[in-house]
Specification:
Layout (H helix, E strand, L loop, with lengths): L1 E7 L10 H6 L11 E4 L2 H10 L10 E7 L5 E3 L16 H13 L4 E5 L7 E5 L6 H6 L2 E3 L11
Parallel strand pairs: 4-5
Antiparallel strand pairs: 1-3, 2-6, 3-7, 5-6
Length: about 150
């Protein structure tokens, strides 16, 4: 499956390292566990970026990166496995536990989880320490991209 990541241009070279998620944690991982968050579509990647923008952030100087993640290396989280509070505005300890256990287990390259923004679509929790990660990352490409100025008002 194609998967997308939007990141600031200055972070392009480390976009798949999992450094930020390792340092701060995320919805699906605890600190000290590297993870890379991807989306199954460009539109979802844009929405995920927009909901996480800080007040000082602008939509300038972003890049869109595309990976081809082999379907047989993606595990889909079953609908009945989501904690009750999985899509709250605050990060759930339950989602962090699920994602961290997935990363530690290393059985799959990516875990497909429903998006909190659009629950009918999926994001991927990509494990940059999985044995197949490097080969997939090396084949990644930058896609021509620019946010539409109308997405954020001044």
């Amino acid at each position: 499956m194609k998967a997308y990541r939007i990141t600031k241009r200055k972070h392009k070279d480390t976009a798949f390292s999992g450094f930020g998620a390792r340092q701060y944690g995320g919805r699906w991982n605890l600190p000290n566990y590297p993870a890379v968050y991807l989306s199954e579509s460009i539109a979802l990647a844009q929405l995920e970026t927009l909901v996480n923008l800080g007040d000082e952030d602008s939509l300038k100087n972003y890049v869109l990166l595309q990976l081809e993640v082999p379907d047989n290396l993606v595990m889909v989280l079953a609908d009945d496995a989501y904690p009750k509070d999985w899509k709250g505005t605050r990060v759930s300890a339950g989602t962090q536990e699920i994602g961290t256990n997935f990363l530690m287990d290393g059985a799959a390259l990516a875990l497909a989880v429903r998006s909190c923004v659009v629950p009918q679509e999926y994001n991927l929790v990509f494990n940059p320490e999985h044995p197949d990660a490097e080969a997939v990352i090396e084949e990644g490409v930058e896609v021509t991209f620019q946010f539409d100025d109308r997405l954020v008002s001044d």
